[in-house]
Structures are given as structure tokens and as C-alpha cells.
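Sample entry (440 residues):
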Amino acid sequence: MATDVEVPALGESITEGTLAQWLKKPGDAVAADEPIASLETDKVSVEVPSPVAGVLTEQLAQEGETVAVGAVIARIGEGGGAAASAPAQAAADATTNPAGPSETPALRGDDHAPQAEPAGDNDDHIMTMSPAVRRAVLELHVDPTRIKGTGKDGRLTKDDVVAAAEAQKSRPAQAGAQARSSFVTPAKAGPAPEEKLDSRLGANDGGERKEERVKMSRLRQTIARRLKEAQNTAAMLTTFNDVDMSAVIDARARYKDLFEKKHGIRLGFMGFFVKACALAAKDVPSVNASLEGDEIVYHDYLDVSVAVSAPKGLVVPVVRNADRMSFAEIEKTIANFGKKAKEGTLTVDEMTGGTFTISNGGVFGSLLSTPIINPPQSAVLGMHRIEERPVVKDGQIVARPMMYLALSYDHRLVDGREAVTFLVRVKEAIEDPTRLLIDL
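Predicted structure, serialized as C-alpha cells:
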């Protein structure tokens, strides 16, 4: 008797998703709770587990198809183990390598590369790549059919892909050129640097100029829609200030080793800024409020949405009750979110809510920006890179590590005076961290 596999609940207000990839194919043996497919929603990627152990007998949806929560996308039949998956594996080997695995030729120059594996032997492992591994394969431009997986049941891991990419870089130039993505046109040997550039662009030798069209992911579509809605709805305005980071840099240099030894996490800048925003929000509560119809909702807590860059776009996991957390708790929470964002394992609950947002473009080198509000929030603080600039201190021109701060806010709710006051409070707390300890 077959068991239906249904699309699981994907979170509040999410009713459908896109079937991104099948991780198992018909005939494959699956264990209970083993992922058989990957779904992409408006916010996160979700793996669909098998409810029982058995054999995948039917796939009832295609990759790229939109499926509703509760819809049946596959059926699991009785059976399992090596015997159940052997026919499917044999068929895959016969299809990809009629001459047999032992006769599969290796790429030239692959003798010492960890990915020099027969393609037929590894096809089943390719079908079970996790979203994080798929992203690594695409970003590093490696051939997954020639990588031997070291994970459970021979599945590829991210480390396998990274190791393969490093080996690919170390090959001789000729072999490396053969293994590159087909979207790169190799330049002719010998020409001047200017000719090499023109060759890649197809300007001198009439080479083919290629384009690639990729459908926007659901996450990217949601980001685009929400950002445009914010611009169309909120009366957005941005105010700026700069802050001398000397005191925070000195504090980190003095206590970073003790902090890491005691708490097991590095002392970063975000802890100081989250604490400073929590302090400033007490004086200017409208910055931490939101509009619902014709009502203003004030929050006596600070749930900070921290903008994190992920492979598929910007995500904003929420540090809840940040105003009541210690520096160590803030740093650990943000570090955990950053790791999950890279792996694509953030949950819907972790990205739901938030009363205020902090975005740190400085980690990418941004000098100044005007961040966009994350609705229904009323404000977002933008941090930027730290650089030494000449400033006047006690009548003397001196060099100081300075950072520009930007506060974008909804002018329907926050007045200019309040926005400036909030930003000044943040500046004062960063330039004199003692204020954070005595609540001043």
C-alpha cells in the first residue's frame, strides 16, 4: 500500500511553494524522515521528508511547478534497502555510461583531483544534493558528476564541492580551461592584455556573445515586491550622522580575548549597535513602532531584524527581545543566523516579525546608503564601513576611525526631530559605551 507525501505547512500566511528539486527519483529507497524533495517558498527553502520508509514509486509534480500546502506530490511504496534501489541504480549507470563504470574516461589532468570519479557511479548522489550544496556547485562552477560524496550514503557535502573547486584551480591551464563553465569564452594564447579583454567581449574576433536568462526565484520576487511596496506606501526619508568608533574599537581590543574565552564567541560591533538602538528607542519609541490602519502600535520590546546576505538574496532573521539580551547572547544569535543563512536553513518563524531593522552594508565596503524600510516597521538603521578621516578634536585636526550612520524612517509616523534625536542617541552611546551600562 502506497503512502502519500504531502506538502508540509510552510509557515503563517504561506499557502504554496515551488518544487525546486527532487532529491530522490522513482525506484530509490528512502528512510523515514529522509528528504525526498526541496521546496522554495517566499522566504526560505524547505526539504520535504518521507513520512515512512520504503521506495519512491511516483512523482506527482514537476520541478519548477507551484504546489499548494497539503497537496500530494509523491507516493512511497513498501520495500526498501539496497535491493530496492539496485535496479534504478543499474538503469542510471546504463544510461549515463553504456560501457560500464570501469570504462568511464577521466578528465585530463584529474589524476590527483578528488573529484575524478566515474559519472555513472555518482548520479544517484547528485539527485540528493541539499540546497546548500547545489548553491556551492553553481557558485564554484564545478561538475558534480565527478565529485565523490563523503556524506551519509555517499551524498555530496559543501566541503566536497569546495575541495573539488580548489583542485580544479590547481590543474594545468589547458585542463582548467576545459573544465570552466561554457559561459566563459577562452581568450587566444599570446595576445596583449587589451586583446584578451576584447576577445572575451567578442569585440575583436567576432566571438559569440552569450546571455543567460534565469527565472526569478520566489524569494527574489518577494524581496522585489516588498521593497517596491515600501517605497509606494511609506513616506520615506533618510537622516545621516557620523560616529567616532574609537571607544568601541578600544573596548573590543581590550576585552576581545577574555570575552571569547568566557562566552565562546567573538565580540563584534553589532552587539554595541543593538544595545545602542535599544537605549535610543526608550527615548524615541515611535522609531520602534508600526502603523496598522489608523492606529499606531507601540512596542515595549525590541525585536531587531538583522539584514543578512544569503546566496539567494537578502534575508532578515529576527533577534527577539534584543533589549533584554546580553552582548554575548546578541553576538551568538546573530552568528547563528549568519551560518543558517549561508546554509539556507533559516526557518519561517526565525524571519517573521521584527519591530526595527539594522543593516550593515559596511561588511561589503559600503561608505553611505539610504536603506529601505522593512514594512510594517517604521525605521531601519544603516551601518557602513569604518575609515580614518580627519576630524577636529579640541581645536586640533586628528585622524579618527569614523562611520556614517543612516536612519531611514516613515515620516507618516516619525517626525524629523524624533529621527534626528534617535540617531544622536545612538551616536552618543557608541562614542561613550559607558552610557550602555548606566542606561543614560
